[in-house]
Structure formats: structure tokens, C-alpha cells
Amino acid sequence: MENQSVKRIAEAVKLDSFALAAATESIRNVALKAIANALAEHKDGIIAANEKDLRLAEQSGIASPILKRLKFDETKLGDVIRGIEDLIDLPDPVGRKLSRRQLDDNLILEKVSCPIGVIGVIFESRPDALVQIVSLCLKSGNCAILKGGSEAQNTNKALFDAIYDAGIASGLPKGFLTLLQSREDIGELLQCHESIDLIIPRGSNEFVRYIMNHSEIPVMGHADGICHIYVDKAADIEKAIPIILDSKTQYVAACNAVETVLVHEDIAKDLLPPLAKALKARDVSLYGCARAMEILSDIAAADETAYFTEYLDYTVNLKVLANLDEAIDHINRYGSHHTDCILTEDTETAEKFMQRVDSAGVYQNCSTRFADGFRYGFGAEVGISTGKLHARGPVGLEGLSTYKYKLFGDGQIVDDYATGKKTFHFKELS
Amino acid sequence: MENQSVKRIAEAVKLDSFALAAATESIRNVALKAIANALAEHKDGIIAANEKDLRLAEQSGIASPILKRLKFDETKLGDVIRGIEDLIDLPDPVGRKLSRRQLDDNLILEKVSCPIGVIGVIFESRPDALVQIVSLCLKSGNCAILKGGSEAQNTNKALFDAIYDAGIASGLPKGFLTLLQSREDIGELLQCHESIDLIIPRGSNEFVRYIMNHSEIPVMGHADGICHIYVDKAADIEKAIPIILDSKTQYVAACNAVETVLVHEDIAKDLLPPLAKALKARDVSLYGCARAMEILSDIAAADETAYFTEYLDYTVNLKVLANLDEAIDHINRYGSHHTDCILTEDTETAEKFMQRVDSAGVYQNCSTRFADGFRYGFGAEVGISTGKLHARGPVGLEGLSTYKYKLFGDGQIVDDYATGKKTFHFKELS
Predict the structure, then answer these.
(1) How high is the mean pLDDT in each 10-residue block of chain B (430 residues)?
(2) Above 70 in pLDDT, residue A300?
(3) Which chain B residue is nearest to residue A236, measuring alpha carbons?
(4) How many degrees, rounded to 5, is the angle at CA A150 between CA A149 and CA A151?
(5) Percentage, residues of chain A above pLDDT 90
(6) Do A413 and B367 touch (CB under 8 A)?
(7) Quick one: B175 and B35 in the same domain?
(8) Pair B198, B328 in one domain
(9) Min Cα separation B251/chain A (Å)
(10) Is residue B416 part of a domain?
């Protein structure tokens, strides 16, 4: 494989994708089961490979959050194996009849779900993401071409070998899974718009934005996660403070962590002092608008750039506003259309917010950290999309599927309908 | 408007799109009714404007098929008005609850359909397309920015004025509809990825391909329509010939016209002579592979380029193949993923073809010309998509919609679930 160009590899995978698209549910589920078993069998080798990656990473002085994501121990292996077993039990995303309509006698139109085809996945250090994404692609009948981070290279190879051999032994076509190894392969991969149907990048903002700007292939994912909480005048302060704390500090490096808290002027004096105290107790640095600074004298000034910043850190902006409309405008202007929340006990206000805020997730009275495939009950996710076409928010099996129209006739020609010799008789069939 | 940059216009439209997204079904339908009435009232002015365009086009020697598409008389006006009235009666595409799931007590996740936002539409000479696309965008709560062909400029302006005034009088935000007039505006429009969510181009292959390659904005549509019919050995020749004739000649300039007919070797000798005779009787020029030329001595040779060509004319390729797999491979390689048909009485063969051919429409025993929003019973279409993400095939109201996730909570935080203090209780609600 090393000697082949990525273009040639992708072309071969494309051809195999038609065979995988036609594989029955049973073939795909049997292969998933074999993969789960193989991962368990190769436990020692996988963990040894990960230990090697961890040693190399430590030697090269890689930051500790990356080390944490890189670690793949027995617990994590157990989790991904259980994840595969859960996935096997989920309903088949392929071949669902999304609609069935009679156009005329013996002329039946079916809209049927089917795989997208070939998915290119470019991801960072987390080895569990590899297993998750591969199993979601397989369950949904898609071929996957993977490029993992170099720091996880030994772990990825060990995982790939176990998964690939189990898949082939179960009768899957060779192209069901490909692992690219060198960094230069990414550039070539992005040029394969004839063979690759979708790219899913998982990594830093800059990395994802680079991918989005350097390929004609559709990209599904998100670069920024600039999430907001708007505290309405009708908010319950008892609920508001824990929600804001959780949204900011439960995991600061997450894309669904809150970066700016907007506060209605009528509640600002009651909310901001205890909120600031609670945030500072968790070591959160505060930036504020002029009005917030009037109430909280000891915070720094938030400028225009601050509102466009995804901190991914223990930092938050506080801004006081006159009304709901200003909050909606701020979020639609500075936000990244990821997840935004209103805290209010007023249903009508919540409804207006949730209708007008142009984001994949619009929440009332709960933490922005809920934006996640597992927490949404999807079983798993390949990522979160802030694009508005195809899939939005956390993307699971459904986002890895498309559909085709099947039209079953008995000799019908269009000229008969164009000339009025026949007329359509539309009828929904179930 | 003439003095504003397209970027500034698009930014203003973006802001108005949030208001239009929140407009009730009743507001949108009342506006559609007012638009239908206004078009009827302004009949004389619209037809006079079209006559002016037609005169100018004739003077400049424009080809007659374009003149035909440009013509907008009382009959066509009546058709588009009836189209709007039909659209009013269709169910609201906005605010449909696509799913509703309990994540835990008082933590309810709803997936709700909503408009995409701002749609840029760049279209050719057909004035009826303008009315159709505008009314579909309005029904689905999207703002539309239009750029029509210069040859239809007077007609487009007359239609726009009538529609715009009626919309504004019905209370729609100003940005619901914008007409750009100059050709240079297209380049600027393609740069507005901050404000425009989707581009729909309607025009020649080269034009659509240019748009697709020159914008970061997602593009929905198709460049080529290279459609195939595969005549299986188990085909009924009595059905096959009329279907092929209709697919080729009912309207040769359509994207869903057939360009290559693939024939199983077992049926080639019986099918090709009467088929060639029937096609020639309709002035169709025939190209063929070596094996087809053995049977039909008086046809020209089809080379590799021929199979990649969308003729849009009275020309067709004939190719003899050994089996179904060769037909599927040919279509997936040379086709444009638009619409491809198998003629066979064998259900299992049809099923294999329809599963493995990677096209938006896969047909059995009927004309490829059925690939159309009206004929599918969608009411109307904004175009046909050969992309595999978001919308595929003829695109109607559903393809102009996206969704958002609304999460309704009562103070829930993620930390309680991460620490095991609480657990999720997923339950589908109806």
C-alpha cells in the first residue's frame, strides 16, 4: 500500500464501496461482532503499542491534555468494544424505505436510505475515535479511509490490523477500511473528489478550517465552538449558576463549552456577583462589557475580539444586554452556530430564542455540554456538524446515510403524460 | 440597491432571514396568495416585458430553443399562478417535529425542521423558474437572492416587482427577496459564504461547474446528466423500444434524457436492429462499440469520449456487454449519478442493479424522463441534485429545509451524569 498513490487507493476503495453498499445487514453485523472479538483478543498488543506511543510522546514533551487523549488502556478498550456491541443492536440504517408513493398504476416511487460511499476521516490523537468512527462507517455500509495523528501511530496501526483482518475474514471487501500513514497523504486525500464522497475532520480549529478550505469534497464537522448562554430576566438564578458553571468548567477543552454569557439588564445586578464568585472559585478568568464592569469592578474588559474567541480554557466573557433581541443578534453574529442556551422560566421567550437563534442546538435551562451524540441517545457520533446542509449537530448513523429514489415501472413513457394520453395518480403508500 | 455591494446586501438579507424563519405558516401562505393575485393583476405588464425581451433576443439572433424557454405568455403565467396555489395547500415544511426523545426526566430533545436561511439562485432564461423557485423558497421560510439571465431581464424585473411588492405588503421582511441585475454580481455573490447558506445554479454544464468550483458556499444541483438504460437479457423488447425512444427523444435537451444504451449480449441481436430502425426514424444518430457495429453495420464508432459526453441532442451510444456487472461498472464510471434505468422482467437482477448503481434515481422498466419534481409528485422542484449529501434527485420543499435540535431542560448539568450521580433514561416520545 505504501507504494501506491492515494488517488489510486481511493479509486480502488470507490469500486469496493458499491459492493459494501450491497452487503446485507447480517454481513455487516457479523463483521462488527468479529471486530469486537478481535479487539478483545489483541488486547495485549494494542495496549503495548499504546504504551510505546505514550513513551515517545512523553519523550518529545507533548502536552498533558494530549497525552490524556492518547492513552488507550484496558478500560477504554472495554468501552469501545461495548460500543460496537451496542451498535450491532441498533436498527439497520441501510435500506429503510423513507417514503413510498404511487405515481400511476404500476409506477411506484420509493425513497430508500443507502450509504454515502467513501468517507475520508482525518483525526487527532484519540484512538477510541478511530474505533468509533470505523464501526459507525461499517454499520452504515460506508468504506472509510483513515488518517490518524502521528503521535498515535503505533496504537492506530495495532487497532487497524486487528479490525482489518477481522473484517476481511468476515467477507467484507478489501476497501472497507484503509489506513494512510504519512502526513503528506492528507494533501493527496483532499484532491480525491472523484472517489471520496465526504471528509470528516476531527482536530483543532485551524486544522479543520484548513481542510474545509482545501478540498472540493464536502466536509462535515465544525471548526469553532463558540457557544453562548443567555440569562433572561425571567431566569431562575438558582438554576442559572450551576448550569453556567457546568457549561464552562465541566470540560473546558470541549467544543460545547460556553465562551460568553449574555445577561438581561434586569437580572444583571442579582446574578453577576454570585456568578462571578462561583466562577472565580473554579479559577475562571472573567472578561466583561462596560456594563458588566460597573457591577463587577475587578474584571478585565472584553473587546470585540474576545466575543469571537473560542477560549477552550478557564476564561469567559460576560455581557449585559437590554433585551432578547440583542441577545439573539449577538449570538447569530459572534457565534459559530454550534449550541446556544437560554435560561428562562418564560416559555414564550424561550420559544422565540429557540426559533431565531441559528444554531444546530438551541437549549432551554440546561448545560451546553449536553451537545453530544451519546447524550442525545444516538449511541455514538462521528462528530458535530455546524453546517446547515445534510446533517446538523451530533452526527451518528443517520448522518452517514443518504438516499436514492427507486422507480419501478411497467413500460411507462413520459410522452403519454406530456400529451395527456395518461395522467398521474399520486397516492402515498405505506 | 444598485449602489450597494452584493456583500452588504447579503449581510442585510442574512439578518432578515432570522425574522422570515420565525414567520408563521399563515403569514407565509397569505403572502403566497397575495403574490399569486399580484401576478394575475400585473399580467399585461409582465407579458409586455416578456415581448420586449423576445424582440431583443430575436434581434440579437439568439437560438430558437432559448427563445422557446424565454417565452412567458398567458398560459405560462396561468401555470405558475396555479403552481403557487397548489403550494399554499402543501403541508408546512417548517417546524415539523422530526423526532422527540426524552433523555431524562424533564430533559426533552426535539429535532425540528427549519429553513436553511439564505438561498442564492443563479438561473438561465426561463422566467417560470424564477416564480417557481421564489415561491418554494418563501413556502419553506428561506430568503432568496436571485440573479437571472440577461436575456430575460425585463421579464424578470416585471415578475420581481409584482412579487416583491405583494410580499412586502403582506408583512414579509424586506430581505425575503432580492434581484441582482448585473453579471458582475455573480462573482461577488459566490464570495458571500458568511451570509449565503446555499447556492442553486440552473444553467449549462459549464456554467454550473464554474459555480461549483468558485465558491465555498455549498452548491446544490447538477452539472452533467449522463443517463443510461441497461437492457438486460430478461428484458421485454416490446417495452424496451418505446422506453428507449421516449428517454432519448421526448425532450433531447433535458438532463434526464438517455445518452448511452447498454445491451446484454444475449439480447443484442434481437433488440438492436429494430431499436436502430426506430431511433433512426426519429433522426437519432447512432454510435456504437465494436460489438454493436458487428450487428449494425451502418453506425459510427463510439470512443471513450463518447461515453463521457452529455449530447443533449438526437445522438445516442449503443454498447454491448457480457453481463450485469459490466453494466453497473460502466454506469458508475461514465455516468453522472443522475438517473439510470434497467429494463428487465427479472426482479432479482433489477434489485442488484438498483442497489449497486450509485445514482440519485435508479429505475426499472420506465423512461429516464420521469426524473422530475412534478412527476415525482413534489408539486415543484428547485432543481435536481446529483450530490449525495443533503438532497438527492429532484429537490422540493424538503431539500430547502434543515433542522435544529431543541433541548428543553429544568436545570440539568452534565457533571451529574459524568460522575454517575444521575443516569440517562432515553425514551422515544411521539
Answers:
(1) 78 94 95 98 97 93 82 92 92 94 94 95 85 94 93 94 97 96 86 92 84 86 90 97 97 93 98 97 96 95 94 95 97 95 97 94 96 85 85 88 94 94 91
(2) yes
(3) B411
(4) 90
(5) 77
(6) yes
(7) yes
(8) no
(9) 9
(10) no
When divided into structural domains, chain B yields a total of 2
Q: Do B387 and A218 touch (CB under 8 A)?
A: yes
Return the closest-CA partner of residue B381 out of B119, B143, B83: B83
Residues B287 and B249 in one domain: yes
Q: What is the CATH number of the domain that holds B342?
A: 3.40.309.10
A367 and B246 within 8 Å at the Cβ level: the answer is no
Q: Judge if B83 and B181 occupy the same domain.
A: yes
Identify all chain A residues contacting B359, using CB atoms and an 8 Å cutoff.
404
A129-188 pLDDT, tens per residue?
Answer: 899 999 999 999 999 999 988 889 999 999 999 999 999 999 999 999 999 988 788 889
Query: Cell numbers 425575503 label which residue?
Result: B176
pTM tops 0.95, yes or no: no
CB atoms under 10 Å from CB of A356, counted, come to 20
pLDDT (tens digit, 9 = 90+) per residue, A245-262? 999 999 998 899 999 999
Distances (CA, A) of A135 to A84, A163, A177, A371, B50: 7, 9, 10, 21, 57
User: What does the pLDDT read at residue B389?
Assistant: 87
Shared-domain flag, residues B276 and B133: no
Cβ contacts of B364 on chain A, cutoff 8 Å: 406-409
Closest residue in B to A416 (Cα) is B246
Q: Are A364 and B406 within 8 A, CB to CB?
A: yes
- Residues of A with Cβ-Cβ distance to B247 under 8 angstroms: 413
CB contact under 8 A, A366 and B412: yes
Q: What is the least distance, in Å, from the CA of B56 to any CA of chain A?
A: 30
DSSP β-ladder status, A118-123 and B427-429: unpaired
Candidates B375, B381, B384, partner chain A, best to mutate (most A CBs within 10 A)? B375
> Going by C-beta distance under 8 Å and a sequence separation of 6 or more, which residues neighbour residue B35?
B84, B134, B135, B138, B162, B163, B166, B167
Residues A269 and A178 in one domain: no
pLDDT in tens, A326-349: 999 999 999 999 999 999 999 999
Contacts of B371 in chain A (CB under 8 A): 405
The verdict on residue A252 lying in a domain is: yes
Is residue A412 in a domain?
A: no
Residue at B365 is within a domain: yes
What residues contact residue B178 under an 8 Å CB cut-off, 6+ apart?
A: B1, B9, B13, B143, B144, B145, B146
For residue A231, the enclosing domain spans 227-370
Q: Which residues of B touch A371 (CB under 8 A)?
A: 405
Q: Do B176 and B309 fall within a single domain?
A: no
Distance (Å) from the C-alpha of residue B308 to the closest C-alpha of chain A? 14
Q: How far is A140 from chain B (nearest CA, A)?
A: 14
* Out of B116, B239, B407, closest to residue A363 by CB: B407
- CATH code for the domain in which residue A76 is found: 3.40.605.10
